[in-house]
User: Fold this.
Amino acid sequence: MVANILTSRIMTDLLGGITSGVVIGLVALSLVLVWQSTNVLNFAQGAMAMFATYVGMTQLNHNLNFWLCVLISVLVGFLFGAITERVLVRPLYGKAEINPIVVMVGFLSLLEAVASSIWSSVPRFLTPPFSTTYFQNGGSPTGLSPFALFQIVAAFFVMALVALLFRYTNLGLQLRAAALAPEVARLLGVRVGRLLTLGWALSTAVGAVAAIVISTGDAGLFPANMESVFIAGFIAAAIGGLESPAGALLAGVVIGVIMQFINDYLNSGYAGFVGVILLVISLLIRPQGLFSKSTQRRV
Amino acid sequence: MIAIENLSVQFGAVRALTSVSFRAQTGAVTAVIGANGAGKTTLLRTISGLIQPHDGRILLENRDITQVETEDISRMGVAHVPEGRGVIAEFTVEENLRLGALASKVDVAAGLALQYEQFPVLGQRRKQYAATLSGGERQMLAMARALIAKPKVLLLDEPSLGLAPLVTGELMDTIQELCVKQSLTVLLVEQNAKSALRIAQHALVLHIGSVVADDTAANVAADTKLRRYYLGLND
Assistant:
C-alpha cells in the first residue's frame, strides 16, 4: 500500500512539481529582492545568473571541486549584481519606470550574446555530485532522486538564509528600512545607497544558486537556459506579490506543481500558456499580488 | 549650535527660500513659524541635505555641512523628525528604535533602556507594530528614535500636526524639557504658532521664503503686527 502511494502517478508528479517549483521560487525571490529595494523589474535576472554560473561552473574543466565551483558562481553573482546596480541601474533611479525595463531587456540580450561568443551556445552538461536516478520503492521509481533532494535542500537553505538575514539581523533591519522608507532611513544615518547595491548583490547571488541547480540538470548549461524558468519565476513573483518574499516562494512551488501536472496529464505545450492564464486571473482578482500588503503602506 | 547664512533654495523657477540667515543656539528651542508655503519644511530639508541649496551655507558648530550627504549629516548629530513623523508602520516600536540607534555609536541596549524610561508608553508597546499606535504615541516614537542616537541638533517638523490640543501641550513640554536636559539645539517648525512660542526662547518668522522677524520668542509673541499679518493670531 505504502509502495503504491509513493510510486503513484500523482505522488510522482507532486514531488517533481515541488522540485521544479522551489527553483521557480528562488528566481521569484531573487526578483522580489531587487524590486523591493529599487523598484526595478530585473528582466536580465536570469541572464545575469546564467553568466555567473558559466564563470564558476566552467572551472570544473580545470578539475576544481564541484562545491568550490558553486562558491565561485555565487560570489561572481554577488559581485556582478553589485556592479550592475552601480554602473547600469543607479543612473536610472527617479526616471520613468519604462527606462530600467528597456535597459534590463537590452542587458539580457547583450549577456546572452556575449555568453554565446565566449562559451558557444552548445549546451554543456555538468555532472552533479548526486545521482539523478530515482529512489526505488518496491521495484518502482518514486518521483524523487538524490539530485532532486539536493535541489530542494539547496533552495530551502538559501531561502532560510535570506529570511534569517532580513528578520533577525541589524543589517536586515536596515535593508528593510531602506526598501520601505528610503528617505526616513537616510535621515537616521542609514547608508541607503550601499544597501541598494547589497540588495542587487544578494539577488544575483540567489539567482546564481537557481542557475546552478538548473544547469546541473538535464537541460545543461547554455546561454538561454534560464529563459523559461525566468518567465515562470516572474509569474510567481507577480502572483505572490512583488512585495512579499514568502508569497513569491509559495507561488513558485504552486506554479511548479501545476505545470508538472499539466505536462503529465494534458500536453507539455500547454504549461507556458497556463502560466500566463494564472497570471491574468491573479491580476484580475488581486493586482497587488495574493500575499502583498502594499495597500496599507507607511504612516 | 547651527548657523544658516544667506541660504537660498529654488525649485525650477520658484524661489522657496530667499537669503535666509539666522542662528539656533544650544540648549534653546528656536521656533520657525509662518503660514503654509512659507518655506519652513524646505528649510529643515535643506539643513538635512535632502535639498541642495543654490546659494548660502549651513554651519554645524562652525563646520560647513552644506555639501554633506544626508546620512552623514545624521551621523554628525543632526536628527530630523520629518513631517508626518516618518515612523515605519511595518516595524515594531522596538525595531523603529533600533533602526535609529544602529548608525550611531550608541550601545543599542542602553539606548533602548533610556528611551523606555523617558517614554514609558513605548516600553509598554515595544513589541507592537507602529501602525497600531495613536498619533501622540507615534510622535513620541519618532522623537525617541531621533534621540536614541544622542544628537546635538533636533529638527522637528510640525510635531503637533493631527494631535489634540491637550496632547500637543504635553508634547511641547516634553520638547522643552529634553532640550534643556540634553543641551540640544532644537529647531521647531510649527504652524501652531501659539504652542511653539510658549516653549521657545527664540523665534524666526518666515513669509514666502524670507525672514520677516528674527527675535526672542517673547518679543515675537508680543508684536501685534506680526501676530496679525503673519501668524494668524487674533487677540
